[in-house]
């Protein structure tokens, strides 16, 4: 018997599988609204000017791509902390934050999950219902049981605040609670500051461990505004985890640039925690790659490049917002009933359309429009060239 004869076919990744089907589709009118990627008005993944400038400078300086410390580049870590917590934040000054470069936001979640498994081997992990598909898979593969807490309310197209708080209260004490800090994926529906305060109270009461995931900072209302939840947590005095990503905000998907930040109780605790995190990293991939993080650090630490990046990020945010508004308006003009999930208030790259699996299937088969089976639509893939055909197709299947 061959070693692999009993290996079963793994289920297709819902999003990567969709991409394969999209690529194989020969219709010229096809549109991919499935993948979570920002496309510009020309339908291309942009190369940000700030990134191009930083890469050029790096090549001209013949900067080596040699060996670096396991946890990454100090200038990068500092820049990440300032984006998350604000420049000069008290907990940065107090040495309560440690940041390690990670392989994208996914890598940050994975290092965090592996470290948590050593700290709290018997804990339960709770994720929002619904959530980014990989949250469940990541924490399960780190060995945790994963539950959902109520989050999205399809009737109000908002957050089920009461249900969420009740579910968080009912989790076993010291559970790990994964929270989308902004631009919730897939719904585009976020908590308001007063909701975050109520959530914080429950987390404190139940001694849960918050794990904030922020993969779209800057795509909601702005860089600082989108970090509001992270900063509320920072003020609360709690210990918590943050995974962050530059894949979208720097359009650097392939470079895998992200970070894991941990807030501890003291500088002394931070030193011990960092030493353990380095072990987790060392036994996974030894050291992180250097190019993408160096580029990000150069941009964030140069006033000119930073201003350029902020302007470009603002343009991406505004473009998505205007496409979402245009879609909402066009659907209303077509006479679509307002009992589905596109609303102007959604933030970030996604809308939770409320389309059923059958409707999503029809969109694909009849119109060559690809969306995730759950109804998640990537609004950032819309442009003036495809908006009309997409809204007409959605209206047709509704
Ligand atoms: C909520 C959320 N967290 C994390 C990630 C992972 O980001 P990265 O592509 O940097 O691994 C994503 C990407 O889709 C996401 O949507």
UniProtKB/TrEMBL annotation:
Pfam families linked to this entry: Aminotran_1_2 (PF00155)
PANTHER family membership: AROMATIC-AMINO-ACID AMINOTRANSFERASE (PTHR11879:SF37), ASPARTATE AMINOTRANSFERASE (PTHR11879)
Broad EC category: transferase
Source organism superkingdom: Bacteria
Protein family: Belongs to the class-I pyridoxal-phosphate-dependent aminotransferase family.
Domain Aminotransferase class I/classII large: 29-394
Known cofactor(s): pyridoxal 5'-phosphate
EC number: 2.6.1.-
Protein keywords: Aminotransferase, Pyridoxal phosphate, Transferase
Quaternary structure note: Homodimer.
Organism listed in the record: Ectopseudomonas composti
One Gene Ontology MF term: transaminase activity
Name of the protein in question: Aminotransferase
